[in-house]
Amino acid sequence: MPDSDGQEVDMRKRYALLLDHPYHDRRDIPDSEKSIFIRVYNDDEIREYLDMADENTAAIGYTEHGFRHALQVSQAAGYILESLGHSEEQVECARVAGFMHDVGNIFGRMAHGQTGAMLAYPILTRLGFTNYQKAIVLGAIGNHEEEYGTPLNSICAAVIIADKSDVHRSRVRKYDPRANDIHDDVNYACVKSGLVVDGDIPKLTLELEIDTQFASVMQYFEIFLDRMVISRKAAEKLSTSFELIINHVTLS
Ligand SMILES: [Fe+2]
Ligand SMILES: [Fe+2]
Q: How far is the CA of 9 from the centre of ligand 1 (A)?
């Protein structure tokens, strides 16, 4: 995909670079990039809620749901829409929704998509979002969970795929193989994870490397089948397809 200077950008390399740094340096994003995403990214209220949402998910034994996950989903959602040629405003809305999608965990796990959307509304108003931008972002936050979500539009679809693709060892807080926690086992087993948009007719591919001494590929599907189903539906919304490659074996 050509960038604004007409240079060819290797998106695969660019995204792989992000995934190689599970804990992103907050200074990575320059202040000159003034945008609705940067307003959200730099907002102290949102940062505090992300930290508290992460504390709450830790308290119920869930994997990491804080700043790392928020930024990962934000960047991946933006990457998907950017790669598929969507407008800058749509890319930015996807980045914002990705960053804020799990803030509802400050109320508890139940319906955290919808509670998060309600929490986000006054914040986005304070940050000067247009009504269109607010509606798009709130819809994406409110529909990101596979239990009740629907990929309403391209932004929502990109956030769903980005969220469901964040499976990685770095999300496990303190691994204990004796705990028999299948979510921790599968996440810990995932030593490499990359989402790629590629091809003449672009398709989405999630490439995973699973160390089978910690979890089997079957265990991955045991807990993540619903996530893969909603990712496939989301890819259809984006007029593309979703492919999964685990340990170099393609499952499409
Ligand atoms: Fe969530
Ligand atoms: Fe999430």
A: 31
